[in-house]
Design brief:
Elements (H helix, E strand, L loop, with lengths): L1 H7 L8 E4 L2 E4 H5 L1 H5 L8 E5 L5 H12 L4 H4 L4 H4 L13 H6 L6 E4 L8 H5 L3 E6 L2 H14 L9 H9 L8 H11 L4 E6 H6 L1 H12 L5 H10 L2 H5 L36 H14 L12
Parallel strand pairs: 3-4, 3-5, 5-6
Antiparallel strand pairs: 1-2
Helix pairs in contact: 4-13, 13-14
Family: Belongs to the sulfotransferase 1 family.
Protein name: Sulfotransferase
EC number: 2.8.2.-
Amino acid sequence: MSKEKGQDLKPMERPQLGEIDGILLAKSTCDEWSRIQNFQAKPDDLLICTYPKAGTTWIQEIVDMIQQEGDLVKCQRAPLNHRHPFIEWARPPQPSGIDQAEAMPSPRILKTHLPVQLLPRSFWEQNCKFLYVARNAKDCMVSYFHFQRMSKLVPDPGTWDEYFEAFMAGKVGWGPWYDHVKGWWKAKDTHRVLFLFYENIKKDPKREIQKVMQFVGKQLNEATLDKIVHHTSFEVMKDNPMANRAGVPITVMDQSISPFMRKGTVGDWKNHFTVAQNERFNEDYKKKMADTTLTFSMEL
């Protein structure tokens, strides 16, 4: 028994990244790639799509609460990461995201961080619904940096200055933020994509949650809607063990370094970017985002 316990406390080795079509992904995901690409979507699948640290957990809880019609007991049935299979997740010997998705009865709610060009083709062919949440690049960078500091499931981010450069160059897991948001923004013109902004959900959660309800075809009364707004607020979710990854061992996610649910604010980048970094970032951002109508609020 004690031996097993000791093994649990051995710090995990951080994964290597591989590459698929120029996009960095966990090596274990790359090893499963043909299986991921051949995944069979179903017409009634709903796919939650985000760039990492753009409010994924938040939108998952919102969607789940809508589907369960505000029933808190049902929303506590399992940790959030088990309720919605993460399709490109692979970490043998654990069941992969594909295994979990295939074992799940329809209608399924699935999750991905993949950019549009890497998504399994069947999602487009089956005309699935996609729910995309985008968060401004500066806050995304800061949140991703802190996540990589505490989670052994991703590479070590190095110093803030090093990470700043890596993020701008797109040399992080799931590739460049810029191409990711632009790709999904464009996809909404030809597919069933509800494109939401993290900053808008923060500003007016009730209005944005209503959009999600409409999109997934649920009609809920005002009292239920208010209940969902309350229970998906950052303050409440931060204390919800089914959402805050409290059950994940410290050897996998060390929340003493940085909590999984850290701040959930807009504009925290100002506490990290130097004046020089901000100027450089803005200049680079202007170039990379020149070919899109997509605009973000960097503060509220």
